[in-house]
Amino acid sequence: MLKAVFHEKGCDFCGFEISGHAGYGTEGNDxxxxxxxxxxxxxxxxxxENFKARADVKVEENRITLRLFEYNRAAVxxxxxxxxxxxxxxxxxxxxxxxxxxxxxxxD
Length: 108
What we know:
Structural class: alpha+beta
CATH architecture: 2-Layer Sandwich
Number of strands: 5
Strand content: 25-35%
Radius of gyration: 13 Å
Strand order of the largest sheet: 3-4-2-1-5
Number of helices: 2
Shape: globular
């Protein structure tokens, strides 16, 4: 199961953490993992390179995190669109668990 935790401060997303595996197909042929990985990296690169938002991006084995250091309207809107995209994938394939953590941090 893929786990997507979005961090929210006020009414805006300020980061996310994606971890796990979808288990939809065999390793190397999992279309859900491929879709989520691809769109996650697109979001990270857009936030830092195109929108020039100050953010911390960490790519580890089975985990990708992004935290915004300051409000950036374009980045916040992209994170909201990313959440909706993952929600649609979850509805179609059911292998993604979504959560929103208020206050910009997780209790884990």
